[in-house]
Structures are given as structure tokens and as C-alpha cells.
Amino acid sequence: MAETMCAKILRAHLAEGNLKAGESIRIRIDQTLTQDATGTMAYLEFESMGVGRVRNELAVSYVDHNTVQVGFENFDDHEYLRTVADRIGAVYSRAGNGICHQVHLERFAVPGKTLIGSDSHTPTAGGIGSFAIGAGGLDVALAMAGEPFSMIAPRVVAIRLSGRLGAGVSAKDVILHVLGHFGVKGNVNMVFEYIGDGVATLSVPERATIANMGAECGVTTSLFPSDANTRAFLEAEERGGDYIPLAADEGAAYDDVFDIDLSSLEPLAACPHSPGNIRSIRELEGMAVNQVLIGSCTNSSLMDLQKAARILKGHTVAPGVSLGVAPGSRQVLMEITADGTLETLIAAGARILESACGFCIGNHQSPGTESVSLRTSNRNFYARSGTPSANLYLVSPETAAASAITGAITDPRSVAGRIGDIAMKSHFIIDDSMFLQPTFTAEVRRGPNIGEPPRNVPMADALDGAVLIKAGDKITTDHIMPAGARLKYRSNIPRYAGFVFESVDPTFPARAMELKGEGKAGFIVAGWSYGQGSSREHAAICPMYLGVKAVLALSIERIHQANLCNFGILPLIFRNEEDYGRISQGDELAVADVLQSIDRGSFVVEDRTAGFSIEMDLFASEEQKRMLKAGGRLNEVAAL
């Protein structure tokens, strides 16, 4: 029977269940990665299991998010991560080594392997043929302990590429086109598999850009075949032994097929405030620009920066524009230093930023009031940059560079002749000295900002409380748990919980704690696509700490749904869409027979204030039902 590439990898790693779309399965995990914003909690959770040492094939702890060390918290957390990695057997990637997804692609990702990471853009490794999934930190900790990963067997959609990209059009425009078609909601438990003759025209770094932003569609992951281009990339990284050929069988059946003629694409942008708000650069051309930032895990490869530099060569950034460039890894930085690209960027007026996530998560480079910022990153959610009034547009490196020169959004096809042909190098500079291999001897260091992961209490059989907030559609984990300047408190849940919904309703934490003090449950009501964006499990942990017992939504995104279950918060879906409009913030709610309702997967929620009842469906697998009753996964986990 002809199989998809997705089916081949999942079948080879299947630990439990039947590989049938929509059914619960468990798969063995080969590799894990964490980053410092989510890693501290993941490693604290791992330690709480009493396992001792990492049991999966490879665990890598990256430091790439909180590298701007204002205050003691970040440095202390990095010392914890360094020493705990040494103690339990994880590889530690030091600050300055680069962004986890770029570095993992370069040095560790392997075709056909499974990878989960405590970052939603882990699917970047799908560009090399890894089955790579973003997940909450607790799921990653369990994988490090050797536990299989629970998921829903996905529907597989083929994205069939033909033709070749035209001059000035890039891989970023491919994924923006995909986002324009599929949107940012309704794609839960789906995998994108790229097939067709056009795939062979794309290098691994280009494929990685496309796989990276598949996360914005909400899919489980994206997959490219492992072919001659994959082999060339691995050989350039001195990892030719990791290569295996891997692709879908001819005649494999897909749940759907979306055709893209690469030669027909034009430069695109994701407009404020969603990666799914797609318009052509042609429509936006001439709009004044204040800031241009090139980098992030999406577009910070050597080829990306070489293209930008060739456009900028011989020109100076427009007087009213601030241009920043962040190489994705130390390897990329060393390469652009050696080939003159760095000199060209500096000569054009670029500010060279650290090889880190930085501006993408709002940790620095916040734009000015009511300004326009063009960025090659993957998310432009409201207030994510640190400036709520700014307008962020997501574009390709080519569009970013062309616009930096003119001071206005500019179609890069007008300067495409400057780029010429850029081939991927046949050999990269290899220097792994910033990876620390474990010795199993370090004494784990814990600064005062590091606490224990909070545990929930078992689920009560009756819930009485109130609606703490009624949110709209597309509430992201950034809305729930802000990053930027607040992210340094990620290891201190009581402190971090004080910022829940800060950009939406800063009174939420105080009101939630007051309700919790009265012994009552907190409820969150939301619209479509609740919890999209980052994988940060703090968006479940902190509301749990504040006494939230259930989220009532029209739909909930995959990673956040798993995090809610992991920490004992009921993910409930409105059975009737109109019921969302009937319920109001402040309404007193009551739920009876909670434990039996979990078993049958359906609830009746009584709105005592408005005098009606609502039917809800529980969005949870059988395994998740058990953990919800227990009050979360940590309550279930004994020493493994």
C-alpha cells in the first residue's frame, strides 16, 4: 500500500494506537529540544519525576530567548539550565550559539527522526525531513524521561509545488501564500506534506522557512522529502552519515491536495495583526517604513542574509529607518564574517544584533509609537513587539532589504537583478565549541527566581464560580501570558501569574485571586482559535495557579489544548455557536457531575446569572480525561 511520508515516519515510531486520522496514538520520540523561556519549567518538571537521567536519544537545551540580561533572573536561570543539563545528560547550547531551530537544523536534525520541542516553531526541522512537533514543556519533559508522546493521528494534506520561484520572490512568499489559503484556524491535527517537481528547486534553508511558518496555520507539523538537496545540506554540515532518502510513495493518498505554481507567486506580506492577514507587496507599495528587522528562526540563514546584503550593497539605509540584522546562529555569523556579507551590511547602516530570538518575542527593538515595522519573523500579534500602537508586517528578506533603502514598502522584484544566483555552500564553517556535552557531575544551581512547578488539586465533582473574562477570536498565548520584559519571571509562577491577560485586562489576576480566595472556580470564555501562537505552557500554568478551572471556547488550538489538560483545566467547546454570544463576563456559572461529565465527554454549564444552561463538548482524549480528573499530568506521574 502506497504511504505518505507522514505515515511512514509515524508507523516506524508508533508505540500505541491505530494510525487512522482522528484516533489517539502515542509515538516514540528520538530527539527533544528546549529553549530558555520554556526550558526552566520543563527541566523542573523533569526533576520532579525522579527519573535521574535523560532516556531519549538526544536532548538539547538551548539558550536563545532571554539573552538580554537585565536583572539577575535570566543569568541565574541560564546557570540552572547549564548545570541541570550537565547533571541529567542533555547537551547545552550556550547563549550566543544561536536560535534553537536554526542551530538544530544545522547540527542535529535528521531525516525520519521524531523531534518534539518546547517551542511552537520546532516544525522548522520538517525542512530536513524530521517529524518535528511543538509541545508544552511537560510533554517534552516526559519525552526526555522516555515516555511516548500522545497525539491525534493527523489528516495529511499534500501541498504540490510546480515551477520555480521568480527573481525577487522567496520561500517566505510561498508560506505566506499557504497562510492566505488555509488561514490561522481550523487546521488542528493536520500535517502539510510538500510534494511535486517544484520541491527540488528549494534548498533546505528555504524549505525550513516554509516548515517554520506552517505553525502559524496551526498544523501539527510540515514535512519535506529527504532528497539530493537534503544530502547536500547534511554533507555541507559534515553530517552526511545522517542522510537517508525518504519521501511519499508514488500514488499515496492524501486527505486533500493544494497546488501551487511557484512561478506564479509574487512578493507578499502578512499585515497587522495576524500572520494570516495576507496582501501583496504590490498593494502596499509606497507605505512609509520606520523600522526593518531581518532575522528570527524563520529567515536568518546564510542565504537569507546574503540576499539582503546584495540588495543593500552600495546603498545606505534611508534616514528615517532603523535596520537591524540578527544572524540565526553563530555558524551564520562566522560565515557572513568570512565572505564579506557582514561588512556589506554594516556599510549599509545595519545594526548587527545578537544571534538570538530577541526582537521576535519583544525582548528588544520595540518599534516607535504608531510606527511601521517590517520584519522577517513569523508573528505579528498585537503588542507582541512591546509597542501596542505599532503596525508589524511580515515580509521576506528581499522585501525587507529593498524597503530599508527606500524608506517605504518596496517590491523586491525591482532590485532582483542585484541578487544574482546564490547557491548553498558545499561546506559550512563547523565549530561546535559552544555546545557543552554532559559530564553528569555538576551541582545544580538554583537562583532565588526559580521555584517548584505548581501542582493543581484533583478535579472537584462540582464547580461554582464566575466568568473572569470574555475574550474574542484569535486570543494568542501572548495575550494570555506576555513575553518581552515579563518573560524573565517564567521560573517564578506566583510572580509571572500577576501578568496574565495583561494586554487585554490587567485586572484579571487580582479578580481571579479574589475569587479563588472565596473557594470558587474561575472560568474563561473565548471565541475561535483560543491559544494560538507560542507553545508556552505558562499560558495554562499561570491561569491554573489563579484558580481557573475551565476554558469555554468556540475552538482551541492544539498545543494549548494539550497544555490545559496537562495542568487540569477543562477545555470545553460550545456545542452551539450562538451560546457564545449569550454568556457575559461576570456571569455566575455552575457545573454539576463534573467527573461523570469528563467520562462521557459532554457537559451542561448552568449560567445562574442569565438563567439558562449551555451544552459543551469536552475536547480531550481518553488519556487526557484521566489527567483532568487527577488535576493534571504532574499529579499522575510517579517516578518513571
Notable traits:
six-stranded mixed β-sheet, seven-stranded mixed beta barrel, Aconitase, domain 4, Aconitase, domain 3, 640 residues, alpha/beta
What's the short version?
With 640 residues, the protein is of the alpha/beta class. The chain has 22 helices and 27 strands. The chain has 3 domains: 5-165 and 185-254, Aconitase, domain 3 (2-Layer Sandwich), CATH 3.30.499; 268-418, Aconitase, domain 3 (2-Layer Sandwich); 463-636, Aconitase, domain 4, CATH 3.20.19.10.
Give the topology, please.
Elements: H1 5-13, E1 14-16, E2 24-27, E3 31-35, H2 36-48, E4 58-62, H3 73-88, E5 91-93, H4 100-107, E6 114-117, E7 131-134, H5 137-144, E8 149-152, E9 155-162, H6 171-182, E10 190-195, H7 204-213, E11 221-223, H8 228-236, E12 256-261, E13 268-270, E14 278-280, H9 281-284, E15 291-294, H10 302-312, E16 322-325, H11 330-339, H12 341-347, E17 351-352, E18 372-375, E19 391-394, H13 397-406, E20 435-436, E21 463-470, H14 477-480, H15 493-496, H16 508-517, E22 521-526, H17 538-545, E23 548-553, H18 558-566, E24 570-574, H19 579-582, E25 588-591, H20 594-600, E26 602-607, E27 612-618, H21 622-630, H22 633-636
Parallel strand pairs: 3-4, 3-6, 4-5, 6-7, 9-10, 9-12, 10-11, 15-16, 15-18, 16-17, 18-19, 21-22, 22-23, 23-24
Antiparallel strand pairs: 1-2, 2-8, 5-20, 13-14, 21-25, 24-27, 25-26, 26-27
Can you characterise this structure?
By secondary structure, this protein is α/β, with parallel strands linked by helices. The chain folds into three domains: 5-165 and 185-254, Aconitase, domain 3 (2-Layer Sandwich), CATH 3.30.499; 268-418, Aconitase, domain 3, CATH 3.30.499; 463-636, Aconitase, domain 4 (Alpha-Beta Barrel). It is built from 22 helices and 27 strands. A seven-stranded mixed β-barrel has the order 21-22-23-24-27-26-25, surrounded by four helices. Strand 1 (14-16) and strand 2 (24-27) form a beta hairpin. Helix 2 crosses helix 5 (137-144) and helix 6 runs parallel beside helix 7 (204-213). The longest helix has 16 residues, at 73-88. It is globular.
